[in-house]
Design a protein that fits this description.
The protein is of the alpha/beta class and 410 residues long. 45% of the residues lie in helices and 14% in strands. The chain is globular and about 65 Å long.
Length: 410
């Protein structure tokens, strides 16, 4: 049972919009998390690092933004998210919106209720089965993407690494029930810890269980250990306390003490390659697939994320992605500039045109794709990519990640 206590604090912001959609979370808007600190007490949590300046004991002194629901409701009423279509992301890598105190305070539920009138899709991340309580609200959004963090199917390892989170089988049950409810759903298999959960003995049953539960993607990645509080606690409470034979490995691969917490580059590359090969062998989506996020973002934003994801996917297969990266940078500059210009013009929202900025951006992209995408090719400087993008935009198709090929409507 959690021994956490909460301290009420005031939120100063509710919903924010970025110049570009988030390739990791597949959302255009982000909603502030109701909590700071986390009683899930995951031993690897990046939120423990000094970078985040969390006051008090990270897993016991939970700050609760008691006014967040009202603030988000005011944001929605004021039209903060009214002019552009795009998913709203609720969740964080440094806290959980469904941690134990949520049962008592229901701040996340209040935030979701406040977001419904915006009529935008919702993307939500958790490692708690408490989200099942709010499936009634998620059903009121145009679309919902439920992402659940699962790093192992071994309950003993989960108890060591994630002592306050729901057991793995309960988290996988969230995926099953999300799919039954008509939501899109996938597993965030991260962070995986070298020698503990980042090995075939753990990942093979984990990936199989995720697929069996109905996960539409498995987004896997390794742990980062930032020097200071986070690394010190993990080394003491996990490695030395339970996996002492692995201490030389951790000392070696994290010997550079990077501020990012990343391991040595050669280890990072080899572990990423191993994860890719495992998921590729399964024919599994390694990132949130294009077929999901194209429906929760406007077409120009979905294309930007596709370009970003293609860099990751092709790089994992040993392809030189520098031309793709350059094209993505050019496209990103165009999209952020166009969005900024349209934002200053204050296009009016009416019932027949609820998202005017997205409509105009979509029209601009269609113009770029006209005449076999010659304008898009001129913009991004990449003929093959322009032709692919044009075929997807004009057909309404999607890019299949496991096969790296476009799929068109029949």
């Amino acid at each position: 049972m959690s021994t956490a206590q909460f301290v009420p604090i005031e939120a100063k912001s509710g919903i924010t919009r970025a110049p570009l959609a988030d390739p990791f979370f597949a959302c255009l808007y982000r909603c502030l998390a109701p909590y700071r600190g986390c009683a899930h007490a995951c031993r690897y949590c990046d939120g423990r690092a000094e970078k985040y300046y969390v006051e008090g004991d990270f897993e016991r002194d939970i700050a609760a933004r008691m006014n967040l629901g009202d603030l988000v409701a005011k944001n929605v009423e004021a039209g903060l998210a009214a002019r552009e279509f795009g998913a709203i992301g609720l969740g964080s890598g440094v806290t959980d919106v469904y941690q134990p105190i949520e049962r008592e305070l229901a701040l996340t539920r209040r935030v979701l209720e406040a977001l419904v009138p915006a009529a935008l899709p919702i993307v939500i991340l958790t490692k708690s089965d408490l989200i099942l309580r709010d499936f009634d609200i998620l059903a009121r959004f145009p679309r919902a993407l439920v992402m659940v963090t699962v790093t192992t199917t071994d309950p003993e390892k989960a108890q060591i690494l994630e002592p306050g989170a729901s057991p793995p089988e309960r988290r996988l049950e969230v995926i099953r029930r999300a799919r039954e409810a008509g939501f899109r759903a996938g597993v965030m298999a991260m962070p995986l810890c070298p020698g503990i959960t980042l090995n075939s003995e753990n990942t093979e049953p984990l990936f199989d269980a995720a697929r069996d539960a109905g996960a539409e993607f498995i987004f896997a990645g390794g742990v980062t250990l930032r020097p200071g509080k986070q690394k010190d606690l993990f080394m003491a409470d996990v490695v030395r306390a339970h996996y002492g034979d692995l201490e030389p490995l951790y000392v070696d691969i994290f010997s550079e003490n990077r501020q990012s917490g990343m391991p040595r580059a050669e280890y990072q590359m080899s572990s990423a390659r191993a994860i890719h090969e495992s998921l590729f062998a399964l024919g599994e989506n390694e990132l949130i697939p294009h077929s999901i996020y194209r429906d929760i973002l406007c077409a120009p934003d979905a294309l930007f994320i596709l370009f970003c994801h293609m860099q990751t996917l092709y790089s994992a297969r040993g392809v030189d992605t520098r031309p793709l990266r350059a094209a993505t940078d050019r496209y990103a500059a165009w999209l952020s500039s166009a969005r900024s210009t349209l934002g200053r013009k204050k296009a009016k929202v009416v019932a027949s045109d609820p998202f005017p900025v997205s409509r105009i951006l979509g029209g601009m992209l269609e113009d770029l794709c006209a005449d076999n995408g010659r304008k898009l090719e001129s913009l991004i400087g990449n003929e093959r990519l322009a032709r692919l993008a044009t075929s997807l935009v004009e057909s309404g198709g999607f890019f299949d990640y496991p096969s790296l090929s476009p799929k068109f409507p029949t």
